[in-house]
Amino acid sequence: MHLPRLRTVIPFAAACLAVSALVALPAQAATVRYEAENATNAQGVVEANHLGFSGSGFVNSANAAGPYTEWTVNAPAAGTATLAIRYANGTGAARTADVAVNGTVVSAGRSFGPTANWDTWTTSTLTAALQAGDNKIRVTATSSGGNPNLDYLDITTADVPASECQAEAATLSQAAVATNHTGYTGSGFVDYVNAVGGSIEWSVNVAEAGSHTLTFRYANGTTVTRPMDVAVNGVTTGMSFPGTGSWDTWADGRVTVNLNAGVNTVRATATSSDGGPNVDRLSVSGPAGPDGQPPTVPTNPQVTGVSATSISLTWTDSTDNVSVTGYRVYEGTSVVATSPTAAATIAGLAAGSTHTYTITALDAAGNESGHSAAVTGTTSGGTSGPTADQLLAKVTTCSQISNGKYKTDSDVSTATVAVCDKTGAVFWKGDMDIDCDGVRTTQCNENTDCCFLPDTFCHTTSDTPLNAAQLPYMVVPSPSSIWDYRTKGIGCGTVVAVVYNGQVAYTVMGDTGPSGIIGEASYRTAADLGINPDPSNGGTDSGVTYIVFTGTGTKVSTIESHSQAVTLGRTLAQRFIDTN
């Protein structure tokens, strides 16, 4: 639905050294949180109308047997893991569900007992065997009441006696960081260019000289083996990386080498014209490997101050068998701050907005603790902005500026939607189709969306496609003789108020669609408005009003920052009310 853009190749240089563990090394033994609102949900909607949830919402399933929530979770190694399902059940009766791992039910008819009310959350904990790599964990309702409200799934795995170095944090040549395939760990993977000589170079620190195993986690979606030379401190060994079935399927390639005590250089260089495979990470293990014990979980998290745009936190220091080197602050599964001490301030927030955080500790070897208890704070000031009714009262009549009208879908026979002009905005009223283009996620990919494209017209500030499953954005028709959005100064990052069923969602222009069709928004926009976001059968046929603000000061500076869109959107919406 848009013109593809060329990706920018950015050089990265970060060593997998103990001194840089805060940036370069992921968790080895940690509790990882997976929010329900980011999972695959069948017959369930994301809501935020009860208190105490983590992340940006929770999942409310239909009142029937069969709805499910399914997470894709990654285990660093095969073994037993602890699964903690956080839920709320404000009824007086238990709700039952089957919990399945990779298609096998591991807890049949599991009882999720009642909680005091829908604002009270509790955790149901079980253990299950996970395979190394990706695992599908599904909670399926087995009673007519459906699932309880589901907040998140915490996965705790055993220690892995290996030092893990993300490829995206290494030094790259003729290769770039990418996120357009699923199943990677860390913040992305490395995609070689199709040429001889591309390389990824890590600096690896081990405690003692001797034999170690290098494990490369890679994907090769072709049927042709892609060889590479692996040079350790200048000594080269050839390795083959055969096809893995698809670019979303990851496998491990291993080689045994001798490492020196201290810092070692490991370089993987493509030797064929096809380049190397996609590389996710390098794991280094051995009888004298690095510290594998994580710090203790941070305790006593507290909000110590708020402003209109920030929340300040403190917590009690963690301990470690060697030393604690720093902390990460999470909002849901996203790291929003790092700190070398037991305090942090999260800035750039919307006034009057509420945020829930957890904290983890890290040591010099890159081990990450489990998550602390959650702490919630609300920024000062702010307003919820004009109501849906106030906005709709200003768009009851249309001064048409489009040269004709748009269709709502390609298969309808009549064009019925006009673009209308107002002071400080244009608007139209119609349907909502689901845009799932951009970054591949569990919700948005070739399997969930027949028309999926791995790019969006607008890009983030780091020049990557937008994430339709996480970012609320809307779609404008590509310029045509009907209307050219650019004539009104509209572009990437322009703020839009989307009104539906008494609700207002502030989004940004993020993508362009067919030149003759109007009425489309991202998976996240639909979910936030209570519209079925499934790209295969979701959306709504009518009742959606799009108010696109025009004039100066109507674009956010960081398109991927939803808080910016909300803050600016409330201001622009009030100005729209006042001037019309």
Automatic annotation (TrEMBL):
Keyword Lipoprotein: no
Location of region: Disordered: 268-304
SUPFAM superfamilies: Fibronectin type III (SSF49265), Galactose-binding domain-like (SSF49785)
Chief location of this protein within or outside the cell: secreted
Keywords: Carbohydrate metabolism, Glycosidase, Hydrolase, Polysaccharide degradation, Secreted, Signal
Start and end residues of each Fibronectin type-III domain: 297-382
Top-level division of the source organism's lineage: Bacteria
InterPro entries associated with the record: CBM6 (IPR005084), Chitosanase_fungal (IPR009939), FN3_dom (IPR003961), FN3_sf (IPR036116), Galactose-bd-like_sf (IPR008979), Ig-like_fold (IPR013783)
PANTHER family hit by this protein: ENDO-CHITOSANASE
Protein name: Carbohydrate-binding protein
Organism: Nonomuraea roseoviolacea subsp. carminata
Lineage: Bacteria, Bacillati, Actinomycetota, Actinomycetes, Streptosporangiales
